[in-house]
Write a structure and sequence with these properties.
alpha/beta, binds 1,3-dihydroxyacetonephosphate, Rossmann fold, 4-stranded parallel sheet, 3 domains, binds iron/sulfur cluster
């Protein structure tokens, strides 16, 4: 079949031949180029299945820091690629679609965050990993949803702390650590969408189902949850629980791995406010496709770059997070 040229991120790539065995082709390219594929749990099932590593934000950062591959293909969003590049500056880091951004990271522009930080000079700055490299460069320690509680707990009880950018995660961490951290007013458009009424209706229909929620959800959703945790923690809980049915309030991509690990259990994605949309799918995460993954491996494009001056500062709070996490066995 004649190949047609097409445009991905301004780059002339390749219209995939429908007869191509794309999985075999990706595996072959990966081997030839000594590349590793890392995928977040919010990627589509086919991408998760072909990845060498599938994990949450913390695990992706930990693997990116350790890999011996020459190329890291980060199937996730831009800030995850940036984190990988900052930790492994000598490696080529690719993200299948460079437009895969993050509404939470976008809710915290670096110049505005700098004003907020400068207005509170005696505060320690804790930032969620869902931030740009420029925001990380203004930060004392980075956290993910897996380690935020433990890292905040590691500070003295009277430590003055700024927490950004997720107000829901910040509120939740304040509540479980009894802190009064100053919060940046940002949020993730996916996790903010879940509806208390619709989850309550589902719970009425399936009274035996346990509600699992990610801490980026609003406090009203967290209040009705049986278990609150990061993507990896929700997965672990679902495999270890005796319950056979779960209502899952986070991006629905995680259901793929939950179902794989517990084929005898039922996982119901929590409905968003507007049930006419697939709002519990992150439209940024879902920009990555198998076709784009193939093209990005083949052409080694699009590549993540980080300004070396920014990276020099941003690497410090990320490494601090990794060191504390290692010490705590996370
Ligand atoms: P975790 O991977 O830490 O669970 O975060 C979820 C998320 O929203 C990633 O973008
Ligand atoms: Fe960002 Fe939310 Fe998408 Fe995660 S799910 S990448 S926080 S927009």
């Amino acid at each position: 079949m004649k190949k047609q040229e097409w445009l991905i991120n301004g780059f002339v790539g390749e219209q995939i031949d429908p007869d191509l065995d794309i999985k075999a082709a990706i595996k072959q390219l990966k081997k030839e180029k000594n590349a590793v594929i890392m995928a977040h749990y919010y990627q589509t099932g086919d991408i998760q299945d072909i990845a060498d590593y599938v994990g949450d934000s913390l695990a992706l950062a930990q693997w990116a820091a350790k890999t011996e591959a020459d190329i890291i293909v980060l199937c996730g969003v831009h800030f995850m690629g940036e984190t990988a590049k900052i930790l492994s500056p000598n490696k080529k880091v690719l993200v299948p679609d460079l437009n895969a951004g993050c509404s939470l990271a976008d809710s915290c522009p670096a110049d505005k965050f700098a004003e907020f930080v400068n207005a509170h000079p005696d505060y320690t700055v804790v930032s969620y990993v869902n931030t740009t490299a420029a925001v990380k460069a203004l930060t004392d320690v980075v956290v993910t949803s897996t380690n935020a509680k433990q890292i905040v707990d590691s500070f003295a009880a009277d430590e003055k702390i700024i927490f950004g950018p997720d107000r829901n995660l910040g509120n939740y961490i304040n509540s479980i650590t009894r802190r009064k951290m100053l919060l940046w007013d940002g949020a993730c458009h996916v996790h903010e969408q879940f509806s208390v009424e619709k989850i309550a209706e589902l719970k009425k229909q399936y009274p035996d189902a346990l509600i699992l929620a990610h801490p980026e959800c609003k406090s009203t959703i967290l209040a009705m949850a049986d278990f609150v945790g990061s993507t990896a923690a929700l997965l672990k809980f679902s495999t270890q629980s005796n319950s056979k049915r779960f209502i899952v309030a986070t991006e629905s991509g995680i259901l793929h791995e939950m179902q794989k690990q517990s084929p005898d259990k039922e996982f119901i994605p929590a409905p968003p406010n507007d049930s006419t949309c697939a709002c519990n799918e992150c439209n940024f995460m879902r920009l990555n496709t198998m076709e784009k993954l193939y093209n990005c491996l083949k052409y080694e494009f699009p590549e993540i770059t980080v300004d070396p001056e920014v990276a020099k500062e941003a690497v410090k709070p990320i490494k601090r997070m990794l060191e504390i996490s290692e010490r705590l066995g996370l």
